[in-house]
Amino acid sequence: MNFSEVFKQSNQLCKVSPDGKYLATCVQYRLVVRDVSTLQILQLYTCLDQISHMDWSSDSLFILCAMYKRGLVQVWSLEQPDWHCKIDEGSIGLVSSRWSPDGRHILNTTEFHLRVTVWSLCTKAVSYIKYPKACSKGIDFSRDGCYMALAERRDCKDYVSVFVCDDWHLLRHFETETQDLAGLEWSPNGCVLAVWDSCLEYKVLLYSLDGRLLSTYSAYEWSLGVKSVTWSPSSQFLAIGSYDEKVRILNHITWKKITQFEHPSTINNTKAVSVCKRSSICLITYCQFLLLPAPDEICPLPVQIPVVKPDPDRANPKIGISSLAFSADGRYLATKNDNMASVAWVWDMQKMNLVAVLEHTSAVKCFQWDPKHPRLALCTGNAKLYLWSPAGCVSVQVPAEGGFQVQSLSWHCTGDSLILLGKEQLCLCYMETEQEDK
Amino acid sequence: MGEWWTTVPIESSLGNFDISSISHATMSPSKQNNLLSMYSSLSLSKSSYSVISAFCTEDNIPQCISYINQELASLGLSSTCIEASSPGAAGLNPVPALNATYELLQIHRRTMCSLEELEREQLKKSSTLEHVQMNNSRLKDQLELSIREKSGLHEMERQLQLKIKTLQSCLKTEKDEVQKLQNIIASRASQYSHDAKRKERETAKLKERLSQLLVDRKDKKLAIDVLNCLGRSDGKRSHWKTAKAAASHEGEMYKSLLSDYEASQRSLMLENAELKKVLQQMKKEMIHVLSPRQPSIRGATADDSQEQADSDLEDRAGDSSRGSLDKSCEHAREQLTNSIRQQWRKLRNHMERLDSQASQVQNQLESNKDVISRETHEDEMERMRREVQQCKEFIDAQQQLLQQLNTSFDDETAALLNDCYTLEEKERLKEEWRLFEEQKRNFERERTNFTEAAIRLGREKKAFEEDRASWLKNQFLNMTPFTDRRRCSSSDGQSALSIRSEPEMRMSSSKVQLPKSSTYTSFSTPKPAPSATVPSTTELYRTLRLIPDPSSTRHSSHGRWHESSTIEDGESQVKAKSRLRCGDLSIFSLGEDENSLT
């Protein structure tokens, strides 16, 4: 395992291009594009203001830089450094900006969610979509980039509009049976749209592409409901994390619950569970991660997990499953329960049981699965990178001066390297593979 | 004897009332008998006393003789007849008189014997009675205890019921509370949703207005500034929005949906086929499992030929199943599922049977493990018995050997062995000797105490005599002429004295008996409580139980309760004590007391 030198970045804006060749980072109002392999600066762009959002187009040719305060979006071309594009939303404001899947359109959401403006880079045409719903996940593009689902709110009712991304043709528009729609997500095969209600009501609705309601699922009433929803990569499972500290897995045929994963505070008789307690002692390893045995402490069962009791008087209580992530092969599911913030749970989706409980000294900030291998990278806001694989787990000290604290991380699309983001810095972590050794 | 006399009323007054009355009833004949005999003896003695003065005088010898003859005849001694030695002469024919006396003595002895026997019997009965009463009292205690327990349980139950009631009321109030809260929540929720809707409408209106305003203002800034337009990512030119395009989009959508459904159908088909395969295999295996079982269940042993036949049968069954399955694929799915179900049922029954058998075996094993089963227990017992037998045999053999050794070996070894035996014996004897010595010391101490008490009593008696003498003198001096001097001095005076001293006697007897009972138990006679009245010799003797107390029977009817209570205490103490020490010690001490005094 190797680490690159440390680079500056701001706002944790740092992304690898979808083709995996370039690394774009924002430093204040500058955008720096590097070659991932050599880390040499390829291009340097200067924006009009401090960049608050940055994104690659799907074809890795353009980079979008949004300056929400100014209501501005600037687009840069990697091939033609001279080419530039500036979109000004004007006094209506800007809260969110994103690429359309084709990489030729930009969707800006204005302040107060007045409308979504679709700018075409091909024709300079602009189109408006009115009444977008102000919710956590109101827009979702299908994986193949054909369709866009947009949550809308009209006359105190929730609607979903399905657009064809090709020409922004409104394909379907239907009302959903939700009180207050909180989010929607396409299944990876693009045929089923999962829609869930706000946390006041446990309700998950499944719509077909043509707007038919396939199924409704509700686990319980009255109590706070859905907190997070994720599809498995095969579209076979829908994992729903809720405020009752459970993950429920629905199948794709009957849309009924297959199983539920509870997150108990005491782990005792579960057979194949390894609980890894990340001690403060750090191990620097330059050897094969995948072949490593677990150097971390494996606790004898039963294990008591520290639980923080949420304040019942405050809104959005810190309890329940806030993050869910399937591994790339869909074999494992990683979860995080908010009132056990220092613990990450790994579940086996074949055996439908708990595989590992990764307990850390501080709260887990972020975790992400390797896009190629079944291995999980975690960070807890300290100078260490934690990795888990079925073979074991390891913690690695980031060998950077000046107290590099890993706040966030993201995998390179090949799974060979990992981008670690500190508060003002970033560094790359290279996983050495066997092929490289040979 | 005096002892028994005192115990009679004790027994009768023990326990509760009716029992005492019963005992009284049962005892009455003997008492009567005793009384009779006593009376007779008394009268006899009286008569013997007064024969000199009253009964027979020189003048009335024949009358006396006739009277005595009459009496004798009434006693059934008609054969002997006292005659005067010579009619008219004042003398008796000695032979019949002596015979009559002898007869009378015989009768007297016999009655005494029977009396003794009766008394013994009575003692026995009284002891059984006592035992029964004890039992009774114990049972009564138990009953009382259980009644108390029952009442306690009742109380507890009542309390629990009360608790339940309060809890139920609590539950009810809680339920009401919950209902109320739910209502509140519902009302608040509806209010909230209503408000939210109102706010949302307002917001929507505002948004509308805002966008209108923004559009109206013709925001100049709202613009896109692109150096040169880009080509589409797919390289095609953009096309107009037409109905055709819309239709094509629809088509695309349905196409993708269709493909998805096709894919899912394909996967389902695959799965179905897979499941069918599994089903088929399952069926085959079930047949395989079931068919060879049947003979074994029937109890036939599986030899080679049998197995051959079985395999044939199985093959046939498999073929048939395959055929049926193939058919089922085309036509009769029902049939297949039914057959599978049947097979499954069979299998399940079989499994259940096996399971129950297994569980039985398991249970047996477990029972073997946990509680020693009867068999093993008996086995163990048998083994132990055998062992004991062996040991006994071994010991017998050893003893025989020892005897042989004793006889056959020289005297020295025999002596040694004897020594070995006697040493133990000696030890035991020594221990006993020590005990005996201790007892002896106790008795000695007691005897000294007793003699001291006797001396004191003698002294007191002397004083009393002196007192009496002075009193008599006074009486004498106060009295007028010397008529009935003799009677007054002998019989009347005595009777008057006895009458006068009766309550005192009762008092004193009880007072003396109380400490005596303690001597009984503690082997040390404390000084008798200094009584205000001076007891007489007879009283002393009575208290020492050396002579029977004639008065005790007389005043037993009224003084019984008092006496018995004290003596009962004493007895119970004796009982309690004798339970601690050995019982024969106390008896022994009594005997020695008697010995020492008589």
UniProtKB/TrEMBL annotation, chain A:
Q: Which InterPro entries match?
A: Centrosome-WD_assoc, Quino_amine_DH_bsu, WD40/YVTN_repeat-like_dom_sf, WD40_rpt
Q: Which SMART domains match?
A: WD40
Q: One of this protein's Pfam families, by short name?
A: WD40
Source organism, top-level taxon: Eukaryota
Kindly list the GO CC terms recorded for this protein.
microtubule organizing center; MWP complex
Question: What's the name of the protein?
Answer: WD repeat containing, antisense to TP73
- In which organism is this protein found? Sphaeramia orbicularis
Q: What are the top taxonomic ranks of the organism?
A: Eukaryota, Metazoa, Chordata, Craniata, Vertebrata
